[in-house]
Structures
1.
Amino acid sequence: MTALIKRFFGNISLVVLLNLLVKPGWVVVENLVQDRLGHHAFGTFSALFTLASVMAAVSDLGTTQLTTKRVAAAPEFLTEYFPTLVPLKGGLSVLFLGVVVAMGWVMGYRGHTLTLLALIEIGMLVAQYTLFLRGVLQAHQRFNTDALLSVLEKFLLLGLVLGLVPVGITLDNYVAARSVAIGFTFVVLYGLMKRLYGQVKLQLRWDQARTVLQASLPLALITLVYGLNERIDMLMLERIVSAQEASYYAAAYRWGDTVMMYLWTLLPLFFAKFAYATNRPDEQRDVLWFGQRVVTAPMLLVCAFVLFRGEILFWQFKHSTAPEITRMVLCLKILFVGVVVHAFFAIYSTLLTSTNHERAVSWLVVASTVLNVGLNLLLLPKLGAVAGAINTLVCAVFVSVGYLWLVHQRTGVPVPWSWITRLALAFGLLCAVWYGLQAQLTLHWLPESIVAGIAFVAILFVTGVVRVSELRTLLK
C-alpha cells in the first residue's frame, strides 16, 4: 500500500471518528423533536427544509466543486479568482432567497409558514457558503481541519436543542436553534480562513465571474437534479398527499440520510483526491480501488442491522400509533436497500464529476429525476410514504447502473469488479448469518447485533476484502 493511500486513510479515520461521536446523537435528538412536534408540524417542516436545502445547493451554481477541483489541481487559482468568488456567491445567495420565497408562495405557502421558509432558507444559504469555504481546505488537502469543522454545526445544534427540551420544543424555536448553530459555524470558519490565507480584498470582476459560471454550470445542473432526485419525494408527499405522510417518510429517510452521511463525508475527500491526481490514471485507480472497500464495507453492516432490526430505531416515538410505526419501519427497510446500492456505487459518480464528465452525469440524473417524478405522480396517491421509498430505491438502481457504464466508457480507470464481487459476497454471508441467528436463537437485539458484527469481521477476512498484510502496513 502506497504512502499516499496510508496517509489518506488516516484522514478518513479522523473524519469517521468525529462523525461517529456527534451525528448518531443528533439523529436521536431529531427523533425526539419529531415526536414532540407531532407528525403534522414536522411533516410541514420537512417539506420546507427540503425546498430550502435543494435551492440553497443550487444557489452555489457548482462553484464549490469547481473551486475544489481547480485549486487542488492548480493552487494559484485561489489567489486569482477568490476575490471574485466571495462576492459572487453572496450575490447569488440573495438572489436565490427571493427565488425560494416566490416558489413557496406559488406552491401555496402563506403567512407564518412562508416566513419559516424564508428563515430556513437563510440558514441553508449560510451553510452552503460554509461548504464553499471548506472546499478550499479540502483542495489544499487539509482534511483533518475540515473534519473538525464538519461536525461543529451538529455539535452546537445538539446542545441547543437539548437546551430547549425543558422549556418545550416548538417549530419556531427549533428553526431558530438551527440558524444559530449554522451562523456560529460560519463565523468560526471565516475567521480560520482569514488566518490561513489572509484578508481577501473583494473585487468582483465580471470577466472572471462569467468564466467561473460557464465552467461551473454543468456542476450546478448535477446539484439541482441530485437534490430533486433525492428529496423531491418529501415535498411531493406533503403537497399531494398530506403532511403526516411526509412525516412518516421523513422519520425513515432521516436514518437513511444519517448513514449516507458516511458517504457524503468521505466522498468530498475522494473528489479532491481524484482531482489532485488528474492526468495520473494509475493513481486514480489506486484511490478508487481503495475507496471501494473503505466506502462500502462499513455501510454493509449498518444496512444489515436495519434490514433485520429496523424497528429498534423508532423507540422514541411514544406519541405514534402502532400502525404509524409499522409504516415508518417499512419505509425504512425499503430505503436501506437503496442505501446498499449507493454504498457500492456512489463513489463512481465522484470519480466522474472530478474528471470532467459532469455533463454526462447530469443527463443521467436528469433521467432519474424524470423517472422519480413520474413514479411519484403515479404511486403517491395510492401508497403514500411507502411509494416514496420504493421510487427512491428504483432511482438508486437506475443511476448506479449508469455510473458504471459511464466509468467504463469514458475514463481510463478500470472498475474493480473483483472487489465488488467480494463485497457483495460478504454482504450475502452477513445476511445469512443474521437470518440464522433470528431463526435458531431468541436473543436480545444487542447481543444478536454484536455476534453478527463479529461474524462480519471474520467474513471480511475470509472473502479477502480485508487483508492482514494491508492492516500491518496501515498500523506501522
2.
Amino acid sequence: MSIDPHVALQSLMAALEEHLTAAAQRRGDKDPAVEAAYLAVADAFEVYEEVLYDAYGEVTPLEIYEDDDEFDDGFEGPAQGAGERSSEVQPGQ
C-alpha cells in the first residue's frame, strides 16, 4: 500500500471523531449512522495498521473484535448497555 502512515493516522482519527459524533446523536439501538461510523473506524484502523507495518515493521497493541454471532445484520458493534466497556477494539495479544 502506498499511503503515508501519517495520512492513514489522520483518516483513523477523523473516523473516530465521526463515530463519537454519531454516538452522541444516536437515534435508537441500531442507528444506521452509528453502525456506519463503527464500520468506518474498523476500516480506517485496518488501513492504518497495514501501512504502519509496511512502512516501519510496527503494529499497534489493538485489534478489531469480531463476533459474528452477536448481530445478525452485519453490524458488529457493542451490545452492552451504557457504561459497560465495549470490546470492539482491544489490546493485542
3.
Amino acid sequence: MAFRRSGKPAAQHRRILRDTTPTRPSRFQGAHRKDGWVLYRWETEFGAAVLAYTVGGEMGTTFPSHALLGELADNAAVLAVVAPDYNVPHGPSLEAIDAAGPDEYYATTWRRLEQLLGMPAPYWHSNLRDPALMTAWRPGAATLTVPAVVIPDPAPLLRLAAEEPDGSHAAVATLTLAREAMWDCAQTALREITEHVDSSDGIASIAIAARPLVPAEPPVVAEEILRDGWRSILNRTDVLAAECARVGSIMGPGRYFPGSCKVTVDPAFCAQAAQWAARLQPSPRTALAIDLGDDQEHTILVDPATDMPAVRTDEGMIETIAPQRLPTLSPLAALTIAHRSVWVTCEDDTVFLAPQIGPSYTYGYEGGGPVALARLIGLLLDDITHTAPGFDATRPDAGLSHAVEEDWKSRSSPFTLTRTELEVLCNG
C-alpha cells in the first residue's frame, strides 16, 4: 500500500522556556548533586524542569543536549544550564533543551524561567559554588555571604604556612599565594555580580543565592622574599612541600620559582648537551621535580651547577627544568641552538641549559619562539645573570630579530655562534 503525504506542514515544537505561557504555579522539589553538577528541580504543568550548575572545577562551556538531559534528569521535560558568560543585558546566560523537541539547545532568559517556575530561580556565581550550600537552598532563602571557592584548594599552602616558624619566608610565600587567590576569586565574583547581574534587566527574576565574602587585600611582599621562600619549599623532599609545589604550579607563582619550565634534552644531539648530561648526579626527589612526574622507577638527578632536577626517560631523553637565571658571573662566550634546547657556554667553559620561563626557543619564522630567543640573546650578552624573557610585549634588538627570524632559516641545528658573532648581529 502506498502512503501519500498530506501536504500539511509538521507542527513546530513549542519550546517550553521560550514559547509557552504557564497557567498554574509550579512546585519546587529540591536540589541534589550528581556527577559534578548541582540540580534544582520543579514540577510544572509541562513536566519537570531542571536547572543545572557545574561544580567542583573550573567552569567550561557545557551546552545542554538530549544526551545530557538523559544523563542528569532522564524524566525531565526541560533542562536549563547556567553558562559561564553573560547575556547582556538579561543577566547570566541560560541555555535550554526540551525532551520533546529537536536536539538543538536554545537561549532563554531568567524572566522566562521565572514565568515557568512562578518564582525567581537561584543564581550562584561560579566562584561561590559550594555544593553543600547549593543543595540546601530553598525558595525565599536569604542571600548568603560566602567565602570564594578557590581551585585548586589552597589548604596545603595554609598548612605549610601554619607549620613554619615565625618570620619564615616559606610561610610568607605560601600565605601570600593563598591570599592572592582568595582575593582574586572574591573580587571577580563581586565585580561580575555587580556589573552583569545586579544591573541586568532580569534582576527581579533572579534570586542571588550568594555574594562573596571579600577578604582584606593582600599586602605587597618583596619579590626577594617570595623567591627565597619558594626556593626553600621546592628544595624540600616532603609530601607537603610537593603538594604546595603542585598547587603553586597551577595558581601561577612560577615567576618566583627557581625553575618552572620543563625541557626535554637529547644528550646525544650536541657536545654541549652531552657535557651537561655528564655532570648530572643522583638526588633525592625534591618538590621542584613535581613537573617531572611521580614515577618512582626513574632515578631523580640534579644539575649541581643550578640545582635543577632531571630524569632519564626510557627513550634515552632527559627531562629537566630550565633555570630562570644562570648562577654564574662568567660572561657568555657562545650560544648553541640545538633540538628543543638552547645551550649557553660561558668564558670559564661551563655549559648551562639556557634560562627559560616563556615560549620554547625556536627560529626561522615570525612568532613567539623566535622573539623569545632573540630577547634571550640580547639579555645574556648584557648580563649573564638576567632572568629569562617572559610573556610581554617587549621587542628584541632589530638585528637579532632579523637574524633569528630570517637569516637562520636555512640553518640546521645544532649550530653555535660566538659572542663576537652575536654582538655583530646586535650592531647590524
